[in-house]
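Me: Here is a favour to ask of a fellow structure person. Could you put it straight underneath, so I can go through it closely?

Assistant:
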Amino acid sequence: MRPSRRHVIGWLAASGIALGFSRIGPAQAVRFEDTQALPGAGPAPAGGGRVDGRAKVTGAKLYAADFRAADMEGWPPTTAHALLLRTPDATHIFAGLDLSALHGAATPTEVVTAERLAQAGTRVPPFYAGDLLCPAGKTPLYLGQPVALLLFETFDAFDRARATLREASPLRFGAATKPVAGANYTALRFTRVAGATASDPDVYDPLQEGWISPGFLDTNGRPIWQPLPVAEGGQYARGAAFGEAIRKELAAPGPGMLVLDRTFATGSTDPMFLEPECGLAWYDPGARALQLVLGVQSPFEAAESIAHLLGAAAAGFRPDRIDTHFASVGGGFGGRDHTPFPLYVALAAMFLPGRPVRLAHDRPQQFQGGIKRHAFRMRSQIAFDRESGRMLAFAGDHVLDGGGLANYSASVAVVGATAAIGSYDIPRVDVTTLAEHTRGVPAGSMRGYGTLQTMTALETLVDEAAVALKMDPIALRRRNLLRVGARSMTGNPWTVTVRTPEILDKLEAHPLWRQRAAAKAAAAKGVLVGTGVACATKDFGTGADCALGRVEMDARGHITIQADAVEMGNGIGTALANRVARELGRQADTVALARIDGFEALGLVTSGDPYAITQEEQDAAARDPRWVPAISSATSASIGAHVGTHAAAQAARIIFRFGLWPAALALWGIAQDDPRRFLWEQALWQGSDLILSGLPPLAQADVAAKAHAMGGVTGAMAHAFSRWAWAQAAFPLGGMDWIADIDALAVRSGGGAFTRLERSFVAFPPASYNRVGTAFTSSCGTLVRVEIDAASGAVRVAQAYSVLECGQVLAPHVVEGQAQGGFAMGVGHTLLEALPPFEDGPGNGKWNLGDYVVARASDLPLHRLEIEVLPPLSPKEPPKGMAEVVMIPVVPALLNAIHDATGRRFHALPVTPTQVKGALACPPSPSPSTGSPTAPSTCATTSP
């Protein structure tokens, strides 16, 4: 949760420090706003191609790691270097540093410790609560916790010191202690009891009753989930009573009920993004200005956090101004959401004033300090009616290892829990989730965000139930699908199209599925062949998503786009260009991402926490016509198309309606009393020509020139906010109140300046929507065929097919690439990737790519992987998130294929050849045939 705050976007002020934001670009030291704007100096790609293609294939500087001080306009030309020391020990008192090995040319210029941070008066932002540097005399909070920052004026000194410290650690430790105990990050229970019929209201659900958490802990710090006979905790007791009744039913099933009761474990994994974390910073003491070069998914949050860090610092450590410059590829392909790394970049510059300083992880340092995927331990119980195959009840218990800092553990726990029943309609559900503090490397957001873990457990259970019920696995899934309008486990319906039935039809009709028995029969001697299926859904959106978009069109028809969305492998630049082109008839000539500046004309203000605000607080705040619940949010893979392009698309639509359309009417000679002037929604672009039935086509450049000449709207900037629905507001445009899915708007007429338009009314989504678990979702299904060498246990992925839906496809090649990448990640997660917990894991600082194996080309069916994307149901269907869902079903489909080949089920990841070989030596798992809970043979159950 965020602390209460009030911020203004213009020159944003945070903690009393002025914040500026801009993008960085290619190596020549030029103005930031003139650099790295895609597609750069060249012409826009023909036919709506990749706007980032030219920059990427020609090796343009797109990552923060590409930059040195000499690349930056106005900076001193020489780069200094920083080295962040992290602890490999979290069970002994940290006794301090011994840097005697760093002498001569390897001597650091400055050594920053916790004591020096205290003297400087820095503050830890609330999201990263905990010591930024472990103080001497304390046990480190977690493995990999930073203990000191060493600063070197030359690369030679830095490199010598780095080499020396690889061989001899300077960290000293004292007496052994227990690991530092920390409070749980969250403990929540989600319980739903449906009404007697689908049209009846729920008896109990989280949407009506609120999210509940037990108020009592056991002596070991674990929550007591059972309702206690005490007066306190009445709200929890009511929900828990319903939950315990569901569990009682599962524990004593009747003869007509099949109950499966299984445990499942998924281990910690690393995002393995292409660029280890890196940053560059310079503090100019004369101007009292701090400038930074960063690559993050959350530009706004990073700047806020740095301002908080230094906002109350002593003289010499508190800048008057912070200018943050964000690299084009800011997400590092999935590993930069709310990382504390920028804080250390800022500190390096403040403790070496006057010198640009670079802090960059190498791969072992990134393993030791980078955010990881949460390891899950799960127990899942599911009941089926034996005759109909309908799901009757479900109970789940999840325990997440959050590591030593909270990060997004609470949010991942919630998303995993509310996704525990996937795409299915189950009338009685009870799920508990606990995110624990441990001494492990902190865990946070990563592709799949908790749903990968819980839906893997679910989809393998459904497959097992199909065997037990002697039903086709796809038919069993189809029978239990959640339909449009039906309620999810939090009590709300999905509010987007639901295409899962079509996806199952595609899977069922595919030759890979229809010919599975023939493939098994044709297997070579010593090879076991199996085919597996799985289907998954993944929410997109967080319940507090924001978008900033600015679109301008000059008199030649050239288009410029600015947006706060960040490129992280999701092709957001191309998605923006293509979505705007549908309104303005031409792909943008310039696309600038990660932009927070440039929106001053909106005059936005914000306060409070959008996730915790009450309806009364929201109504009161909204009386200020400039107030919005939040200004900018992190980019994530699944909201790029849905959120990241939304504000720009709305801005482009306004330019068309109030700029291009009046110009087109004038060029066609359509009078004011001609009813055709109302047909703007029937007009369409064919190439760069504007077409309306019965009229001659108009060239986009001619229409743009006329719009400028008439003083029509030629530029618009907008802000949008979504809490499972877009905020709506009305603005005075063209003599009417124009209603749009935005909450702030400024426009430019002709070649004039931007002017903010006051909204005449605004409707923000109700605060009660914060109780929604999932309202926006996309679906994907996967078929996988494996070939297993019986002698070695090696699993080869021979062929695969994935089918997905994502609404309006903005960048087809990017969608296909995301699906291919998701498949590769799913293979790695299932068969290859594993990080042991604690001292044997990455926190010890010894891990590298020789130890951590990711999927390579040889592990994938490169020429036998088929991706199919369902077309949108209508041309006006908005884009949906898809980048995460394409990974999720790959994992259970592989596990189900391995079972089909071997007759053994695996309930922990990864599944290694040694484990498969060992399982093949054991008798097959028994099929459940009674109403009582059964478990597979322990011989076939692996552990991470």
